[in-house]
Design brief:
The protein is mainly beta. It is 7% helix and 48% strand. It contains 2 helices and 8 strands, in the order αββαββββββ.
Length: 132
């Protein structure tokens, strides 16, 4: 089931909602890291998004950050498919509710990552300066 507000699927959505008045746009993300944790049965994705917060923390403003950097975890993996790989991992990220919990899909034409798990958690959100 698609939802307009993917942050509602996070176990700790409040941290995103504090700095964004709207669900951040995931139509263009740049993935830097994909981590599989066998012991915790989780997939970690570390990525930047172009949608900068409209209510950034004072620290981000003082540091003149212009990018938001997220790390999310799909926990309790029940299905995982990875097809292709690339040094440049810019594409769209879709997050939706499914019967088993959540589904996260990244795709860019060369790379496809699809994962289903029990729940989705926000491990980290940070600001930094990126080249634009």
């Amino acid at each position: 089931m698609k939802t307009d507000d993917w942050t509602q699927l996070l176990t700790d959505a409040i941290y995103v909602q504090l700095i964004y008045s709207h669900p951040p746009d995931l139509s263009k993300v740049s993935i830097y890291e994909v981590v599989l944790d066998r012991e915790a049965s989780k997939l970690g994705l570390r990525f930047d998004i172009e949608d900068y917060p409209d209510r950034p923390p004072e620290k981000w403003i003082a540091s003149q950050f212009n990018c938001a950097h997220f790390t999310i975890h799909v926990v309790g993996i029940s299905m995982l498919r990875i097809s292709g790989w690339s040094h440049e991992m810019v594409g769209s990220l879709e997050i939706e509710k499914v019967d088993s919990g959540v589904r996260v899909v990244f795709s860019n034409g060369q790379v496809s990552i699809e994962c289903e798990g029990a729940f989705l958690s926000l491990a980290k959100i940070a600001g930094f300066n990126c080249q634009r």
